[in-house]
Amino acid sequence: MKRGLLNIFFAVGLPACLLKTGTAMAGDAPTNSIQGSHELTLEQLVNIQVTSVSKKETDLNQSPAAISVITQEDIQRSGATSIPEALRLVPGLDVAQINSSEWAISARGFNSEFADKLLVLVDGRSVYDPAFGGVEWEMQDLVLEDLDRIEVIRGPGATLWGANAVNGVINITTKNARDTQGLLVSTSFGTVEKPATSIRYGGEFATNVFYRVYLQYANNDGFTDSSGNDTPDSKNILHGGARMDWEPDASDRLTLQGDYFQADLAGPALNPSLTPPYAANFYGENFKNGENVLGRWTHDFSASSQLTLQGYYDHEVSRDTETLDAEDIWDLDLQHRFALGDRQDIVWGAGFRYEMDQTHPSFALSFFPQDENNHIASAFVQDDLTVISDRLHLIFGSKFEQDADTGFEVQPSGRLLWTPAENQTFWGAVSRAVRTPSRTDTDVVFNQSVIPPSPPPGSPVPVLVSLRGDPTFHSEEIIAYELGYRWEPNPKLSFDLATFYNVYHDLSIYTAGTPYTVFAPVTYEVVPENASNGGAGNSYGAELSAQWRVTDDWKLMGSYSYLHLRLTPSDAYAGDSPQHQFQLHSYLNLTRTIELNASLYFVSALPDQQVPAYARFDLGVVWRPNKAWEFGVWGQNLFDDQHLEFGSYRTPVLTEIPRSFYGKVTWRF
Amino acid sequence: MCLLLGTLLQINWRSEAQPPVFTEYQVKALFLLNFTKYVDWPATAFGQADSPITIGVIGENHFGEDLKKAVEGKSVNGRKIVILPLESESDWSKCHILFISASEKKRLPEILAKVCALPILTVSETDQFIQQGGMINFTRKDGKVRLEVNLESARQAELGISSKLLSVADAVRRKP
Question: Which of A6, A144, A175, A521 has the greatest number of CB atoms lying within 10 Å of its CB?
Answer without folding.
Answer: A6
